[in-house]
Known about the structure:
The chain is an alpha/beta fold. The chain folds into two domains: 14-100, Beta Barrel (Elongation Factor Tu (Ef-tu), domain 3); 110-273, Nucleotide-binding domain of ferredoxin-NADP reductase (FNR) module (Rossmann fold), CATH 3.40.50. The protein contains seven helices and 18 strands. The protein has helices spanning 4-13, 80-86, 119-132, 152-157, 181-187, 199-211, 252-255, and strands at residues 16-25, 30-36, 48-52, 58-62, 65-67, 70-76, 93-100, 110-116, 136-143, 161-166, 173-174, 192-196, 215-219, 235-236, 241-242, 249-251, 263-265, 271-273. Strand 9, helix 4 (152-157) and strand 10 form a beta-alpha-beta unit. FE2/S2 (inorganic) cluster binds next to loops. Residues 224-227, 229-234, 242, 244 line the site of FE2/S2 (inorganic) cluster.
Amino acid sequence: MSYGKSVLAFEEFGFRPGKVERVVRETSKMVSVYIKLHLPNLPRPGQFLMIWVPDAEEVPMSVSGAGRRWVRISVLGRGKTTSKIQKLRRGDLVGVRGPFGRGFSLKGKSHLLVGGGSGVAALIYASKTISDQKKECVFLIGAKTSSELPFLREVKRLNQKLLMATEDGSAGYKGVVTDLVEPILIKKDFDSVMTCGPEKMMVKTVELALKHGVRVQASLERYMKCGFGVCGSCVLDPVGLRVCTDGPVFDGRILLQTDFGKFKRDAAGRRRPI
Ligand SMILES: Cc1cc2nc3c(=O)[nH]c(=O)nc-3n(C[C@H](O)[C@H](O)[C@H](O)COP(=O)(O)OP(=O)(O)OC[C@H]3O[C@@H](n4cnc5c(N)ncnc54)[C@H](O)[C@@H]3O)c2cc1C
Ligand code: FES
């Protein structure tokens, strides 16, 4: 008997059970959860998963690391679901859909990564892949204070150049991470810039990269329900791109024609200023 397309659709869009293998505190606000599960393909950097925990919502999470039989997500506690994810323990079960979306293009030999907040999760996986490909990478990470800077040891282990910015000056440069972007673009040639984090930070990074003639990609966090293009909750106005399937990684020039950095939709689909 052939189940044809319906089985394929379930494989692609249905839940897979995942078992929590390890939980690691990365910073005062971020926790990484290693989940054992079988994925047909290794996720690409920039792709995301829909994670469901019992008694909470299903939420999108970037892949922050992966192997053939495991994935890692790195979660900032924001509300009910992310707090529940942070409290998961070894042996707990979660539902996982995906990986979904288009990831970063890693074309070129030298890359500048600019991350803040939960956005560093997507970029750490990109930096690992860049390192595996023996390409060059400079990683700029920003946070309010030193205890909120994630993955510092991991970036150093990858042998990549790391520059930090903290708003209170407790580590690295005192100020916002985008202050570091222009000086490094002047000093060094990059084939591409990749950014993920708060939208205001990404807008500034995109503008600076384009000013210096460097290709730039930004990964967006917009409200998601289905994760694979049918519900419309993640749409970018006015062009109608869906962040879950056309993104979450977009070319910076395209984003500047949208509501990027200005508005985003809430759970009810209402446009809210950023
Ligand atoms: C592609 C993508 C990748 C992401 N990767 C990460 C990551 O690696 N680490 C991380 O900590 N966070 C990530 N997020 C954000 C994360 O999904 C939200 O923080 C989470 O859904 C909040 O849920 P909550 O119930 O804890 O909070 P709530 O109290 O329900 O909401 C807090 C805020 O989170 C946002 N949010 C809530 N539900 C969703 C949803 N279904 N989709 C998108 N945003 C939502 C809203 O802006 C809301 O104001 C990502 C989002 C997207 C779209
Ligand atoms: S989340 Fe449903 S269309 Fe993008």
